[in-house]
Design a protein that fits this description.
This protein is mainly beta and about 130 residues long. It is built from no helices and 13 strands. The strands form 3 sheets. Strands 2, 4, 5, 6, 9, 12 and 13 form a 7-stranded mixed beta sheet that branches. A 4-stranded antiparallel beta sheet has the order 1-3-8-7, with no helix packed on it.
Length: about 130
């Protein structure tokens, strides 16, 4: 059964760092584009970052550019989101999702766009809280 699991969330002070991990069981992440999304209380889920299967396309939301970095370790079947200079506005549940790239280029990670509809598999999320 294909499953994505996020980990690495927690409570951190403003200005601090966290590294989220997205691990998969039942399928190989290197064949998928991976996106990170977040949803704060009372707000819509938004795309944070994505990386295509070939790593040729990487995108970030404007709100996290220069602070967050997405990467993948195919040997560990894991995708990471390094989050630095965290702000209270980054508080949210963070989800990773996988886009199978069935028709060639990923629908969910195209240019600067992180498109939720392109992702078929979702994790349950991990809470990130930025507070002093």
């Amino acid at each position: 059964q294909a499953q994505l699991v996020e980990s690495g969330g927690g409570l951190v002070q403003p200005g601090g760092s966290l590294r989220l991990s997205c691990s998969a069981s039942g399928f190989t992440l290197s064949y998928f584009a991976i996106g990170w999304f977040r949803q704060a209380p009372g707000k819509k889920r938004e795309g944070v970052s994505c990386i295509s299967s070939s790593n040729s396309n990487i995108a970030y939301a404007n709100s996290v550019k220069g602070r967050f970095t997405i990467s993948r370790d195919n040997a560990k079947n894991t995708v990471y989101l390094q989050m630095n200079s965290l702000e209270p506005e980054d508080t949210a549940v963070y989800y990773c999702a996988a886009d199978p790239e069935e028709f060639g280029p990923p629908l969910g990670c195209a240019g600067d766009s992180i498109i939720e509809a392109g992702y078929d598999y979702w994790g349950a999320g991990t809470q990130v809280t930025v507070s002093s």
